User: Fold this.
Amino acid sequence: MTRYLLRRAPSALIVLWLASVLIFLVLRAIPGDAAAALAGPDASPEVVAAIRHDLGLDLPVVTQYGQWIGGLLSGDLGRSYLIGGDIAELVGDGLGNTVTLTLAALVLAVLVALLLGPLWAATRSRWVDRALTAFHTAAVALPTFVTGVLLIIVFGVLFRVLPTGGVPPNGLLDRVDITVQYLVLPAVCLGLPVAGVLTGFLAETLRGELRQDYVTTVRAAGVKRREVVLRHALRGALPVAITTLGLQTGALLGGAVLVESIFAWPGLGLLVEQGITRRDYPVVQVLLMLSVTVFVLVQLLTDVIHAWLDPRIRLGAAA
Amino acid sequence: MTALTRRATLKATAAAAVLLAATACQSAVDAQTGGAGASATPKPGGVAEVGVNLDLVPGNVFTNSNVAITTLVGLVYDTLVHYDRDKLEPKPALATEWQAADGGKTLTLKLRDGVKFHTGRPFTSADVKFSLASYADPKWNGQLLSTAKTITSIDTPSAQEVVLHLEHPVSNLFDLLDTVPVIDSESAADIATGKRFVGTGAFKFDAWKPNTELKFSRNADYWDGAPYLDGVHVRVIPDSQSLVAAVRSGQVQLARGVGYRDAESAATTEGVKAVQLEGAELQAYVGLNVTAPGLEDARVRQAVAYALDKDRIIKEVFRDKGYPVSLPWPKTSPAYDQELDGRYRHDIAKAKALLAEYGKPVPEIPLAYVGNDQVYTAIAQVVQKDLADAGITVKLTPVDSTQFVKQLIGAQFPGLWTTSHSWAQFSPSTLTVSAYPFNARRNSSHFLSPEYTAAAEKAWQLPTATGPEATAAYKTLSNQLLDNAFLAEIGVVFEQFVTRSNLHDVDWSRRRELDLSKAYLG
Assistant:
């Protein structure tokens, strides 16, 4: 397994380096700059030029890239143009919130998929099938901004049982019961599309497994249908589902940008959105690199789990 | 793998439902709303929950450029003088009296005694000198930089007296004194990083968590009487609909940065109202690049001004929260002249006649606007239709906000653009020397004219902002703006607060700074 991991590592590092160059260049290619955003519409060109010089935006692009990468490698993430604070501190604050939200959404999605996927694959009831088809379609098709606003209106405004947004006043760790209330709506909003996709994949893969010869053999041995699905077919279907889950983690991180904005959840998504809109290059660069790194690591982890679950993969790789 | 039985599944589902129901009935919502009823009797206590759609940008605290900044500045800082919202008459604030001399080139101010910064340090004349000098530093991008730079020296003969020496008299000096926040020199370096904001205002700054919240507590030693509220908690809620939902649910008592349609919708909820900020007006306008093909002729520019259906824009886009104008001045401005202001009323026939007089086909003109701003997207569409009616083809070119500002400051718009400006609610000269689109020496329209420059300078270098001489100067300036039509005003419009009825006596300054010094929760 270690050898398998070491073989995958160089390609991951190349992806990270290429991503850093791409991120840096693409951000510079967007029209407008942080100095203009900071100066505002009534400022004179002299003021903008002074701010640009102050931020080092008048230096050659290669020098700026060198300074950024040098800083990253030495552990200095830089300072935000807009917020003025240390990026490591900003990212640290936001990361905890985003990870909490993403994990909650992920757990929710996995639970829903594990509950509904096998049920959908094994059901003989037309009504259950129709209901699950409707759930799957709605979960996958409804955009998060629609789901988010609907959840806020129903649970925050009409019934007033859950906060419309924000984080607990005394932090996430102060009182778990309060934190859960703040987390429910954004986690459902973020996790719903992933739950839909996972449920669909799991059900479809399970149906495929149920058509396999070994299932017929097990059934012929008198094992109950529910046990066949949960004990035998599910094990065969899990590698595909886990690969899908890995891919969906990327979607979750992307979706977090919008969901955090809708629910005023102060995570990395809000930082990215603000950074892109206001051309806060240092913050966006670090956050995009962080996203790429997480994505690469998740893919690596997915491959490892996949190889662990299916020996043919690691043996094939070794050969 | 353990078998997942039907019973276990049902148990898990039931447990999840109970957990959800139990947590939903707990106190997170109650803790936010408080559950207070309406009362008209001021009483101390409580923390006002305020929602804003944008976060603080510490480097911009002197620019009044977003609702988080104007909330912070309004709560924490004081100014030397204070304008009422209906007239440009300075009232005492940190300065209690003043005396002009030397034809308006010297101003002596007496300072209020017994005022302390939030750190407990006494406020003195040295702080006034420091604050004015800081404001004049271009890196802070103060909007009244030109006026601040006319101050050549500041004397501090005693702790309670300041003497300002000016290069020449300026009619908007009190605009500057009403605008510059008096900052604490000992903590000023922390402003740029957002670590500390120390002033003499009604509330002390406690903490800022980027993209999350700002916290303020009551200044019990406030010179104008301690505020009723124990504190103010400002939450950053970027999404306009979520912001409205927070007010409607009672989790926020005052929301800033809500769109016009959302505010209108919110005000239909019982216990919620939209308050328009009278005296702190903004102006929506269409800018014209006078070097663009066709627009180099004043008749074509005037045709554009006549073609705009301003009433429709005010009614449909701004939901009647404003009124149409031909000039930038609001009705409370000393430069407001009803007759002059009525010049460019929607008149397609006049627009067509002017184009016929021009005699050449006008090429297609691009119209830039901020594409993710619903208000200006709607305005751009109406302008496109209006100009098509007059015979001018417009191509809509949406851009993002940062690119838009860059093009505006860099005078890079190839044709037309639409956005808003401020500062016309102050002395008229403040607009022409401070707001870049109107700047006589260099502006976004590439409009340069000795007559306009002379009119702007004349209005600026008057010793006072009112009186017969000032009125005559403003008339000349207004005629220059109307005749040259390098900016076609659409209307004077108002920002709105969306508030719950249990938050009383909310006030604001001409710069839309939030004033909760006398506010209380019912």
In short: Residues 351 and 429 of chain B are 30 Å apart (CA to CA). The longest helix of chain B spans residues 6-25.
